[in-house]
Design goal:
Length: 154
């Protein structure tokens, strides 16, 4: 039986919540894609506060302020026991690699389609807009390593 190995992650995803955007991260293994809650009280508070004071521009400021914190949280999630993570939060989801039909990724959004459901998140890491940064390319490479031609980069 083949063991499950973490291939990488996509951090700083945004799922819009009622008060402030929820931060999500993908942990990609050779068998599954896990959608995990990566929110912390400080990143949620920063996002709500900046958005309240500065409107839409405040969200960008919050993304810059919290990106390292969310990345560090994601790195810890990727090293934790994945089964425990799934049990710890009812919003955490595991998608079997074989159930994923298509992944569309751009510098703005990521869309994951299965036969039952479509998951759509904003990419909120401000480094993906920096053409000298390898963050976006790394996201695409990790997804392609697990899912091959199912990944479409736009």
């Amino acid at each position: 039986m083949e063991s499950e190995n973490v291939l990488g992650y996509v951090d700083n995803l945004t799922a819009f919540g009622i008060i402030a955007p929820a931060r999500k991260s993908l942990v990609i293994t050779n068998k599954r894609v896990l959608i995990l809650d990566a929110s912390s009280m400080s990143s949620t508070a920063a996002s709500a506060g900046f958005a309240y004071v500065f409107g839409i521009f405040g969200r960008g400021m919050a993304n810059r302020a919290s990106k390292d914190e969310v990345r560090e949280t994601t790195e810890k999630l990727a090293q934790a026991n994945l089964e425990d993570l799934l049990k710890s939060n009812s919003e955490n989801v595991a998608l079997d690699i074989t159930s994923i039909e298509r992944v569309e990724i751009s510098r703005k959004n990521i869309l994951i389609k299965t036969a039952q459901k479509t998951f759509k998140y904003g990419l909120s890491n401000p480094d993906i807009w920096n053409r000298n940064s390898t963050v976006y390319d790394t996201y695409v490479q990790v997804l392609q390593a697990a899912l091959g031609a199912k990944v479409v980069s736009k």
